[in-house]
Amino acid sequence: MRPWMPLVAAVALTAGCGGASAPVGSTARAAGFAYTVNAFACASEICTLDITIHNIGRTPRTPGVAFARAYDTGGREYLADLTLIGLDDPLLSDLAPGATIERRLRYRVPADHTIAKLELRESPDAEAISVPLP
């Protein structure tokens, strides 16, 4: 057996498992979607998340906005503000199999709070992908 074979097997077995961590700029898969956090920035009391979402499933799926939750250094949770993206946003419609969209989500965060991470998940009971923020 080649010395690198156990490592390859371990990576193959853990790829796609819940509780994963993915840095900004990398793509992570969760159930039927692949997510890429392209950028995250805060100014005043609005934080913006630029994200690419790809439907890797075989059926249409609605991403919604609750899939991406922000957490500050005190552990407080923030949801994207629907009033800042609009009810006609493509995130609220079915995304066809194989389709990709790029969106910007906005969060209202008190100016004295610092967002430390994002958690991405397809549904509330699914394992989260943690995205640590610099």
Question: What brief labels describe this structure?
Answer:
2 helices, 134 residues, Immunoglobulin-like, disordered N terminus, four-stranded antiparallel sheet, globular, mainly beta, 10% helix
Describe the structure.
The chain has one domain (17-132): Immunoglobulin-like (Sandwich), CATH 2.60.40. With 134 residues, it is mainly beta. Helix content is 10%, strand content 38%. A hairpin with an 8-residue loop joins strand 7 (115-120) and strand 8 (129-132). A four-stranded antiparallel beta sheet has the order 1-2-3-6. A four-stranded antiparallel beta sheet has the order 5-4-7-8, with no helix packed on it. 18% of the residues are buried. The chain is globular and about 45 Å long.
**Contiguous uncertain segments of 5+ residues:** 1-18
> For the record, what CATH class applies?
Mainly Beta
The major beta sheet can be summarized as: 4 strands, antiparallel
- Please state roughly what percent of the residues sit in beta strands, choosing from under 5%, 5-15%, 15-25%, 25-35%, 35-45% or over 45%: 35-45%
Q: Order of strands across the biggest sheet?
A: 1-2-3-6
The number of helical segments is: 2
